[in-house]
Amino acid sequence: MFTLKTFVALLPLGSAFAFAFPAAEAVEGGYGGRNAQPVFYQGHDLSSLGIMEQGGAVYHDTARHDQTRAAEDIRGDGGMNTVRLRLWVNPIPGQYDLSYVLALAKRFAKKNYRIYLDFHFSDNWADPDHNIAPAAWPTTVPALSNTLRTYVRETILTFKHAGVDLSLVSLGNEIRNGMLWPLGQVDVDITPHSALVSNFTNLATLYAAARSGVTDAVNAGAAKPQVLIHIDNGWNITLQTTCFYPFYGTDATLANLQNSLHTLARHYGKPLQVVETDWPAICSGSDAPELSEPSVPISAKGQIEWVHDVIKVVKGVPGDLGQGFNYWEPAWLNMTSLGSACQDAILFDTDWSRYPKMEAYSRESVGMLKGV
């Protein structure tokens, strides 16, 4: 069985690493370029916001008598200080490519939100079921490593030159089964141990190259971000670590998350974050999944309760190593299930009567991060 120790042990001496949770993530020592002191990153993934707006979405703040406002301003009033954005390499133009993500990052940075860049290192979604290398990239490990290092360096410097300091970066997305397949794919269950170590060699080489790209960018003048290793199933200590969703198994309990985070903190002594989670406002019907914490209500109030409970677990990590939380895609109006079997886990009610214009009205759960 794969453990994070197996992967970390293969990184060259001097390499730093990070973790992330619900997803959970581990984070390197040092703090984001914006602050010298530790900060608790509390944010939302707003990667799809630009696409929503281009498609006719308008957001209303119910706390201000349905005033039309930018979604990030509504979220900011609700306690958000960080925005997470995913980056694909060569997708369909406007689908999370560099120019699209950079425009969003500039917009949010001007409003003093910290920016968390989630490198997918793929032309499309990267996750444990498909983490495919960009089609145009090399197909040998040495050449791919060089391309990856240069890509990370140049991307971070592009943000710097646009006036955006990146506070956080994930090198790969949900990389439990590796990244940049097929060369960086791993089998977490392979035996014996010697085969497991050999199996992880390519991934460690590629991750080290990406990490060197961050160092190269910092040496060229970019602000130093925290660097995260992002792994899904934050409740499962055997795999750790990072994503923590309540829909995909009843083992995703708060107690198991606490066990994962505390174990990682004791073993590695590195900062930890839960960087993806959500909770349903609507989840009914014969296909509705059994949720991991059935005492939490399925409602906007339940969304608040879930988030407060998760943040309490994160902040309770020994040594003040629990340092961040992100809710995934709360403003994605035409993907309200957020990939789950529940109907709706976003933070807005939407009026479709004037489609293609989408009128979104904030739920009380938009204030979930205020005062936590």
TrEMBL record:
Gene3D superfamilies, per database record: Glycosidases (3.20.20.80)
Catalysis performed (reactions): The enzyme specifically hydrolyzes (1->4)-beta-D-galactosidic linkages in type I arabinogalactans
Any one GO biological process: pectin catabolic process
The keyword Transferase is annotated on this UniProt entry: no
Class in the EC hierarchy, top level: hydrolase
Pfam families, A to Z: Glyco_hydro_53
Signal peptide bounds: 1-18
InterPro entries named in the record: GH, Glyco_hydro_53
Protein's name according to its UniProt entry: Arabinogalactan endo-beta-1,4-galactanase
UniProt KW keywords: Glycosidase, Hydrolase, Signal
GO molecular function: arabinogalactan endo-1,4-beta-galactosidase activity; glucosidase activity
Coiled-coil stretches noted in the UniProt entry, renumbered to this chain: none
Family statement: Belongs to the glycosyl hydrolase 53 family.
Record EC number: 3.2.1.89
Keyword Chloroplast: no
